[in-house]
Amino acid sequence: MAGQAGPRAFVATGQPLDDEMAERIRRHQASRQADWRTDEVPVDLAAWFDKQGRTYRTILVDCLTLWLSNLQGRGVSDAQVPLLVSELLRTMKAAKARIVVVTNELGLGLVPAEAAARRFRDLAGRVNQQFAREADEVYVVVSGLPVRIK
Known about the structure:
Blueprint: E1 8-12, H1 19-31, E2 36-40, H2 45-52, E3 58-62, H3 64-73, H4 81-95, E4 98-102, H5 115-134, E5 139-142, E6 145-148
Parallel strand pairs: 1-2, 1-3, 3-4
Antiparallel strand pairs: 5-6
Helix pairs in contact: 2-4, 4-5
């Protein structure tokens, strides 16, 4: 979906906080083509886009859900998130690149038993909606098959 137009940047929000996540990140890095520049940006995506966004023709951000989790881990309140998303969207639009944002649809499964997990799921849904409203195209990937919904 990102296409082949270069220069290309892969902006990773994942953090190797445990061995399993470190291995996931290693596998992702190994599978990426050599012409992708990888930047690890767990929290400050808007600042990255302000500084680097105009450098690239193609930018892939993976993933919005981890970014949200990282924000919460840094003590960002749910009420602050829509403002941070608006700022990120503003900086993305200024980049003039083809930008692909990966996120997770958390609302398709069971309702979590824990209140904190339900709150996160709901917040992620609102963030996804905020991004989808601004996006030119929106896809959901089911069993490896992209399905265009906008």
